[in-house]
Design goal:
Layout: H1 2-8, H2 14-17, H3 24-40, H4 44-48, H5 56-73, H6 81-88, H7 95-124, H8 128-139, E1 142-143, E2 146-147, H9 149-152, H10 156-168, E3 176-180, E4 186-188, E5 191-193, E6 197-201
Antiparallel strand pairs: 1-2, 3-6, 4-5
Helix pairs in contact: 1-7, 3-5, 5-7, 6-7, 7-10
Length: about 200
């Protein structure tokens, strides 16, 4: 719901309904499985292109396209993430580019951000010293019961913890590609990798 409010000025309302009536979380969970598999076995992407597009994928695409259409029909400039991207991008985003950004907003809020927070909390809560230090730093931004959100963004230890969580569990399922340009084989974990060739480090 928070992602919907920030990204599209609403659209999910699962708390009001008491459930995920349109099954968005189920659709996203299925998509993440497919994307994660493609991250580990890159050639699967070529096979997935031949899969039928009906079902959850088509439903999700229809949702993001509808959000783009809503903003295009709105006379005033909306102050949500997608609205700002569409109104202030130079050159202007195409409908396909805006729909791709809408998809990224949904996935970022429902999967990648969640994984980062889970990783951060899992490691901080198992280290009493780190937990106390982080708690004290965050408490220092609270004055008269009100948190200074600007100060929170500048907390060095909190930033370090977030960066470490991102290192431990990167937010995307794809590893980095590298190109082995040397003429001699690379010995990695007692395995000889002939050169030249592309290397993939899956997560």
């Amino acid at each position: 719901d928070s992602m919907g409010d920030m990204g599209f000025s609403g659209g999910f309302e699962t708390m009001e309904a008491g459930q995920d009536t349109e099954k968005w979380l189920e659709t996203l969970a299925t998509g993440v499985i497919f994307v994660s598999c493609m991250g580990q076995v890159p050639w699967l992407r070529d096979l997935f292109r031949f899969l039928p597009r009906n079902g959850p994928i088509q439903t999700f695409q229809a949702f993001t396209e509808s959000k783009v259409a809503d903003i295009q029909k709105t006379a005033f400039k909306r102050q949500d993430i997608l609205g700002i991207l569409m109104n202030k991008s130079t050159p202007a985003l195409t409908s396909d580019e805006a729909a791709a950004d809408a998809s990224l907003i949904v996935v970022a809020a429902t999967d990648t951000s969640v994984q980062t927070v889970i990783t951060l909390l899992r490691h901080v809560t198992t280290n009493a010293g780190s937990a106390r230090r982080l708690q004290n730093e965050i408490d220092s931004t609270v004055i008269c019961g009100i948190m200074n959100t600007v100060a929170v963004l500048e907390l060095p230890y909190l930033d370090a913890c977030v960066q470490e969580a991102l290192r431990i569990m990167p937010p995307g399922p794809f590893g980095k590609f590298g190109v082995l340009k040397e003429t001699m084989p690379l010995i990695l974990n007692r395995q000889a990798l002939p050169a030249p060739q592309d290397l993939l480090a899956p997560i």
